[in-house]
């Protein structure tokens, strides 16, 4: 029935369907008998009419070759028809056939091979064969947007018909590489390991995609390391959902965190209209980040984050902390270009790939100072405005305890100074010689 066909169609286009329309257009494919005279049109967002889908029309005869030549065709659903015979030669353009339930009735013809017509005719009716056409067909001409990821990611990734995204966890696979490449993309920022984009997929899903640079490890090693990262599951971590690896492109797919990073909330938009982070929020973020890092450390003595800093503490809409970017330092070569991570780095760390758990704790201590002072620990040599945060804190409170060290935004809240100064219970902090850094953990 048409209702069933609609359900099948919706399921099979996996969210790509913008609208569909059953009209009573006569079907005119040579060699195809159509008993219901109905044609389903499929429109995809921004792509116009893509093709007519013979869903549930009780078509019989061979599948019209024209279907396989349609540009931008992603999936072809032949559900509830009575097609038989060979899949047309042009099917060799297709790199993947999925859910080919009716293998008896529909035969994939290898080039030059004769087709056994009778085999097809005698078999049971086709149930739900679905053909996918990934690769350049789908990402081509009208499909790609100039601001899309496909304009950024190298061709090789686009045309790789075999490789696809590798997903972690029990989450059902909701999109594939082609979906990702067609997504509209916005640069979120450039970091040590590459550039991160906000990618909005046509089906409405939003993800953060990190395009890694300078990956020196082999595919096998990359996979092993990403498997470890992908297995980390904690409410204070940004989950790595999947990755893509090819010779030219390495992509990581994370959940997108709509509030951005602690760094941008603390230091961005200092002008009018800024929403200051109050002490409750800051201490809650510190606690959440500590829990995320402690979880990583609990996974084994050799497992550390390696890059704890405020741009890697992302926030949910409820201002809960999610730690991001763990396990990436070991993918790169030994040469690490100096960057603002240095402001967080424990003095004993000489190789960015070898950061101990203790060094993570040092970086976390710097993060706490950043939360308390509102100052970013950028490296003075690289950035004139940068400060060596522990040294600055020491210089301010060397003689006498003074509230000057705190972020002015925090001091606007009357009770906060007392809150911050009353407690010395910060056993986690391994920063040496920093007097009177006080923080009360929320109860
Ligand atoms: N999952 C995400 N959701 C929202 N924003 C993100 C996400 N991941 C990263 N960002 C933001 O994108 C920007 C770039 O991030 P990226 O991780 O590439 O660099 P970084 O954190 O500045 O440096 P590094 O590479 O050393 O960690 C940062 O502002 C970061 O907060």
Please, could you describe this protein's structure?
The strands form 6 sheets. The chain has a 6-stranded antiparallel beta sheet with strand order 11-15-16-14-13-12. Strands 1-2-3 form a 3-stranded antiparallel beta sheet, with no helix packed on it. Helix 8 (279-297) runs antiparallel to helix 9 (357-373). Helix content is 24%, strand content 17%. By secondary structure, the protein is of the alpha+beta class. The structure holds adenosine-5'-triphosphate. Adenosine-5'-triphosphate (ATP) is lined by residues 188-189, 191-193, 196, 208, 210, 238, 254-257, 260-261, 264, 307, 311-312, 314, 324-325, 341. Residues 112-122 have a biased composition (Basic and acidic residues). Keywords: ATP-binding, Leucine-rich repeat, Membrane, Nucleotide-binding, Repeat, Signal, Transmembrane, Transmembrane helix. InterPro entries: At_inactive_RLKs, Kinase-like_dom_sf, Leu-rich_rpt, LRR_dom_sf, LRR_N_plant-typ, Prot_kinase_dom, Protein_kinase_ATP_BS, Ser-Thr/Tyr_kinase_cat_dom. Residues 140-150 have a biased composition (Low complexity).
């Amino acid at each position: 029935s048409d209702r069933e066909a609609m359900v099948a169609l919706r399921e099979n286009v996996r969210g790509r369907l913008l609208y569909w329309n059953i009209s009573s257009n006569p079907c005119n494919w040579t060699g195809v008998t159509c008993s219901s005279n109905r044609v389903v049109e499929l429109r995809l967002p921004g792509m116009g009419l893509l093709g007519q889908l013979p869903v549930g029309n009780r078509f019989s005869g061979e599948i019209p070759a024209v279907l396989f030549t349609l540009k931008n065709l992603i999936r072809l659903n032949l559900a509830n028809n009575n097609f038989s015979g060979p899949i047309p030669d042009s099917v060799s353009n297709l790199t993947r056939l999925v859910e080919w339930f009716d293998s008896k009735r529909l035969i994939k013809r290898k080039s030059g091979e004769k087709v056994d017509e009778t085999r097809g005719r005698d078999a049971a009716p086709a149930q739900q064969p679905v053909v996918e056409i990934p690769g350049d067909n789908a990402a081509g001409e009208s499909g790609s947007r100039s601001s899309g990821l496909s304009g950024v990611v190298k061709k090789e990734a686009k045309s790789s018909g075999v490789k696809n995204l590798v997903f972690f966890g029990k989450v059902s696979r909701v999109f594939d590489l082609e979906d990702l490449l067609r997504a509209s993309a916005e640069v979120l920022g450039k970091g040590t390991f590459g550039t991160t984009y906000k990618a909005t997929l046509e089906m409405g899903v939003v993800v953060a995609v990190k395009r890694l640079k300078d990956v020196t490890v082999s595919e096998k090693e990359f996979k092993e390391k990403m498997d470890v990262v992908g297995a980390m599951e904690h409410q204070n971590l940004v989950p790595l959902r999947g990755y893509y690896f090819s010779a030219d492109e390495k992509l990581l797919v994370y959940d997108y965190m709509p509030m951005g990073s602690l760094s941008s909330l603390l230091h961005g938009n200092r002008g009018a209209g800024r929403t200051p982070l109050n002490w409750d929020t800051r201490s809650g973020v510190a606690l959440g980040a500590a829990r995320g890092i402690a979880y990583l450390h609990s996974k084994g003595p050799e497992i550390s984050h390696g890059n704890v800093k405020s741009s890697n503490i992302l926030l949910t809409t409820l201002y809960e902390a999610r730690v991001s970017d763990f396990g990436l330092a070991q993918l790169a070569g030994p040469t690490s270009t100096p960057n603002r991570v240095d402001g967080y780095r424990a003095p004993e760390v000489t190789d960015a790939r070898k950061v101990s758990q203790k060094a993570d704790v040092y970086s976390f201590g710097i993060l706490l100072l950043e939360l308390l002072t509102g100052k970013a620990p950028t490296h003075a040599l690289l950035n004139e405005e940068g400060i060596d945060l522990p040294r600055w804190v020491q210089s301010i409170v060397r003689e006498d305890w003074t509230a000057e060290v705190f972020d002015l935004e925090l001091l606007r809240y009357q009770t906060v100074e007392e809150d911050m100064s009353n407690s010395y219970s910060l056993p986690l902090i391994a920063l040496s010689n920093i007097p009177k850094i006080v923080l009360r953990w929320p109860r």
